[in-house]
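Need C-alpha coordinates for this chain, all 209 residues.
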Amino acid sequence: MKKHSDFWDRNAKLYDRFMRKDQTAYAQMYQLLRPVVCHKTVLELASGTGLIAKNIAGWASRVEATDASAEMIAQAKRDKPSDKLCFSVQDMFHLPYADRSFDVVIVSNALHIVPQPEKALQEIWRVLKDDGVLVAPTFTHAENALSGKIRAFFMKLVGFPLHSKWSKEKYLAFLQENGWAVQKSAVLKASFPLCYVECKKAQKEPAAL
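Here are the C-alpha coordinates for all 209 residues:
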Protein backbone atom coordinates (compact mmCIF):
# COMPACT_ATOMS: atom_id res chain seq x y z
CA MET A 1 0.00 0.00 0.00
CA LYS A 2 2.99 2.37 0.34
CA LYS A 3 3.13 3.30 -3.38
CA HIS A 4 -0.62 3.86 -3.31
CA SER A 5 -0.50 6.15 -0.25
CA ASP A 6 2.51 8.05 -1.65
CA PHE A 7 0.41 9.27 -4.59
CA TRP A 8 -2.27 10.61 -2.25
CA ASP A 9 0.32 12.11 0.11
CA ARG A 10 1.70 14.13 -2.80
CA ASN A 11 -1.73 15.32 -3.89
CA ALA A 12 -3.49 15.82 -0.54
CA LYS A 13 -3.37 19.62 -0.68
CA LEU A 14 -4.95 19.61 -4.15
CA TYR A 15 -7.66 17.05 -3.43
CA ASP A 16 -10.51 19.36 -2.37
CA ARG A 17 -9.91 21.62 -5.37
CA PHE A 18 -9.90 18.60 -7.69
CA MET A 19 -13.20 17.34 -6.27
CA ARG A 20 -15.09 20.64 -6.61
CA LYS A 21 -16.17 19.72 -10.12
CA ASP A 22 -18.20 16.84 -8.66
CA GLN A 23 -19.88 18.80 -5.86
CA THR A 24 -23.34 18.35 -7.40
CA ALA A 25 -22.97 14.56 -7.43
CA TYR A 26 -21.60 14.64 -3.90
CA ALA A 27 -24.57 16.72 -2.73
CA GLN A 28 -26.85 14.01 -4.12
CA MET A 29 -24.77 11.37 -2.37
CA TYR A 30 -25.01 13.19 0.97
CA GLN A 31 -28.80 13.17 0.66
CA LEU A 32 -28.75 9.41 0.06
CA LEU A 33 -26.36 8.83 2.96
CA ARG A 34 -28.08 10.82 5.68
CA PRO A 35 -30.97 8.41 6.42
CA VAL A 36 -28.52 5.48 6.32
CA VAL A 37 -26.15 6.95 8.93
CA CYS A 38 -28.72 8.66 11.17
CA HIS A 39 -27.91 7.80 14.81
CA LYS A 40 -25.51 5.04 13.67
CA THR A 41 -21.87 4.22 14.36
CA VAL A 42 -20.04 4.75 11.07
CA LEU A 43 -16.63 3.75 9.73
CA GLU A 44 -15.41 5.48 6.59
CA LEU A 45 -12.48 4.00 4.69
CA ALA A 46 -10.41 6.01 2.20
CA SER A 47 -11.94 9.19 3.60
CA GLY A 48 -9.39 11.50 1.96
CA THR A 49 -9.73 15.01 3.36
CA GLY A 50 -12.99 14.09 5.04
CA LEU A 51 -15.53 15.56 2.62
CA ILE A 52 -18.11 12.86 3.33
CA ALA A 53 -17.27 12.33 7.01
CA LYS A 54 -17.63 16.03 7.82
CA ASN A 55 -20.97 16.20 6.03
CA ILE A 56 -22.54 13.23 7.84
CA ALA A 57 -21.00 13.76 11.29
CA GLY A 58 -23.98 15.76 12.51
CA TRP A 59 -26.36 12.94 11.63
CA ALA A 60 -24.42 9.90 12.88
CA SER A 61 -23.84 8.97 16.52
CA ARG A 62 -20.10 8.50 15.83
CA VAL A 63 -17.87 8.55 12.75
CA GLU A 64 -14.43 6.96 12.50
CA ALA A 65 -12.89 8.34 9.29
CA THR A 66 -9.72 6.66 8.08
CA ASP A 67 -7.28 6.83 5.18
CA ALA A 68 -3.96 5.18 4.31
CA SER A 69 -2.47 8.60 3.50
CA ALA A 70 -1.09 10.51 6.48
CA GLU A 71 -1.16 13.73 4.47
CA MET A 72 -4.83 13.29 3.61
CA ILE A 73 -5.65 12.81 7.28
CA ALA A 74 -3.55 15.86 8.19
CA GLN A 75 -5.63 17.93 5.76
CA ALA A 76 -8.85 16.47 7.18
CA LYS A 77 -7.89 17.38 10.75
CA ARG A 78 -7.45 21.06 9.85
CA ASP A 79 -11.23 21.49 10.07
CA LYS A 80 -13.07 19.02 12.31
CA PRO A 81 -16.68 20.18 12.75
CA SER A 82 -17.85 17.70 15.39
CA ASP A 83 -16.58 15.91 18.51
CA LYS A 84 -18.37 12.82 17.17
CA LEU A 85 -15.84 12.64 14.31
CA CYS A 86 -12.39 11.05 14.65
CA PHE A 87 -9.75 10.93 11.89
CA SER A 88 -6.92 8.38 11.84
CA VAL A 89 -4.44 6.73 9.47
CA GLN A 90 -5.43 3.11 8.85
CA ASP A 91 -4.89 0.35 6.29
CA MET A 92 -8.28 -0.83 5.01
CA PHE A 93 -6.87 -4.34 4.59
CA HIS A 94 -5.85 -4.59 8.27
CA LEU A 95 -8.21 -2.59 10.48
CA PRO A 96 -7.68 -2.31 14.27
CA TYR A 97 -11.38 -2.57 15.12
CA ALA A 98 -13.13 -5.52 16.74
CA ASP A 99 -15.47 -7.80 14.81
CA ARG A 100 -18.96 -6.37 14.20
CA SER A 101 -18.07 -2.90 15.54
CA PHE A 102 -20.01 -0.64 13.15
CA ASP A 103 -23.57 -0.14 11.95
CA VAL A 104 -22.41 1.38 8.65
CA VAL A 105 -19.19 1.18 6.65
CA ILE A 106 -18.61 3.66 3.84
CA VAL A 107 -15.91 3.14 1.23
CA SER A 108 -16.40 5.81 -1.41
CA ASN A 109 -14.55 5.96 -4.74
CA ALA A 110 -11.85 3.64 -3.48
CA LEU A 111 -12.46 0.02 -4.44
CA HIS A 112 -11.51 0.74 -8.08
CA ILE A 113 -8.13 2.24 -7.08
CA VAL A 114 -6.81 -0.47 -4.74
CA PRO A 115 -5.29 -3.83 -5.63
CA GLN A 116 -7.32 -6.81 -4.41
CA PRO A 117 -10.55 -4.95 -3.61
CA GLU A 118 -12.11 -8.28 -2.65
CA LYS A 119 -9.67 -8.42 0.28
CA ALA A 120 -10.88 -5.01 1.44
CA LEU A 121 -14.47 -6.28 1.27
CA GLN A 122 -13.55 -9.20 3.55
CA GLU A 123 -12.19 -6.82 6.17
CA ILE A 124 -15.30 -4.66 5.86
CA TRP A 125 -17.42 -7.78 6.37
CA ARG A 126 -15.51 -8.50 9.59
CA VAL A 127 -16.00 -5.07 11.21
CA LEU A 128 -19.59 -4.53 10.05
CA LYS A 129 -22.48 -5.72 12.21
CA ASP A 130 -24.54 -8.57 10.79
CA ASP A 131 -27.49 -6.25 10.14
CA GLY A 132 -25.24 -3.36 9.07
CA VAL A 133 -25.04 -1.50 5.77
CA LEU A 134 -22.09 -1.18 3.41
CA VAL A 135 -22.21 1.97 1.27
CA ALA A 136 -19.73 1.66 -1.59
CA PRO A 137 -20.04 4.38 -4.27
CA THR A 138 -17.46 3.89 -7.00
CA PHE A 139 -16.54 5.55 -10.27
CA THR A 140 -17.29 3.07 -13.08
CA HIS A 141 -14.60 3.92 -15.61
CA ALA A 142 -15.73 1.32 -18.16
CA GLU A 143 -18.66 3.65 -18.88
CA ASN A 144 -16.59 6.82 -19.38
CA ALA A 145 -17.66 9.19 -22.13
CA LEU A 146 -14.94 10.50 -24.45
CA SER A 147 -14.23 13.44 -22.15
CA GLY A 148 -13.90 11.03 -19.22
CA LYS A 149 -11.51 8.81 -21.19
CA ILE A 150 -9.32 11.80 -21.99
CA ARG A 151 -9.35 12.92 -18.35
CA ALA A 152 -8.53 9.38 -17.19
CA PHE A 153 -5.62 9.21 -19.66
CA PHE A 154 -3.99 12.33 -18.21
CA MET A 155 -4.65 11.15 -14.65
CA LYS A 156 -2.83 7.92 -15.46
CA LEU A 157 0.15 9.92 -16.73
CA VAL A 158 0.57 11.56 -13.32
CA GLY A 159 0.35 8.22 -11.51
CA PHE A 160 -3.34 7.87 -10.62
CA PRO A 161 -3.66 4.26 -9.35
CA LEU A 162 -6.61 2.87 -11.31
CA HIS A 163 -6.84 -0.92 -10.85
CA SER A 164 -10.42 -1.82 -11.87
CA LYS A 165 -12.48 -0.49 -14.79
CA TRP A 166 -16.00 -1.67 -14.01
CA SER A 167 -19.32 -0.97 -15.67
CA LYS A 168 -22.24 -0.60 -13.27
CA GLU A 169 -23.38 -4.16 -14.01
CA LYS A 170 -19.91 -5.64 -13.51
CA TYR A 171 -19.39 -3.67 -10.30
CA LEU A 172 -22.66 -4.90 -8.82
CA ALA A 173 -21.79 -8.45 -9.87
CA PHE A 174 -18.38 -8.07 -8.21
CA LEU A 175 -20.02 -7.08 -4.92
CA GLN A 176 -22.47 -9.98 -5.13
CA GLU A 177 -19.70 -12.46 -5.90
CA ASN A 178 -17.91 -11.32 -2.75
CA GLY A 179 -20.73 -11.86 -0.29
CA TRP A 180 -22.87 -8.72 -0.56
CA ALA A 181 -26.57 -8.36 -1.36
CA VAL A 182 -27.23 -5.09 -3.21
CA GLN A 183 -30.16 -3.22 -1.68
CA LYS A 184 -30.02 0.02 -3.66
CA SER A 185 -28.03 1.38 -6.59
CA ALA A 186 -28.08 4.55 -8.65
CA VAL A 187 -25.75 6.20 -11.15
CA LEU A 188 -24.94 9.83 -10.34
CA LYS A 189 -23.65 12.20 -13.01
CA ALA A 190 -20.07 13.22 -12.21
CA SER A 191 -16.70 13.55 -13.95
CA PHE A 192 -16.92 9.79 -14.35
CA PRO A 193 -20.16 7.78 -13.90
CA LEU A 194 -20.55 7.39 -10.12
CA CYS A 195 -22.34 4.21 -9.08
CA TYR A 196 -23.87 4.67 -5.61
CA VAL A 197 -24.51 1.32 -3.91
CA GLU A 198 -25.95 0.19 -0.57
CA CYS A 199 -25.41 -3.45 0.44
CA LYS A 200 -26.21 -5.87 3.22
CA LYS A 201 -24.29 -9.00 4.10
CA ALA A 202 -25.44 -11.99 2.09
CA GLN A 203 -26.12 -15.17 4.03
CA LYS A 204 -22.85 -16.78 2.97
CA GLU A 205 -19.61 -15.26 4.22
CA PRO A 206 -17.00 -14.69 1.46
CA ALA A 207 -14.15 -17.18 1.34
CA ALA A 208 -10.81 -16.06 2.77
CA LEU A 209 -8.14 -15.17 0.24
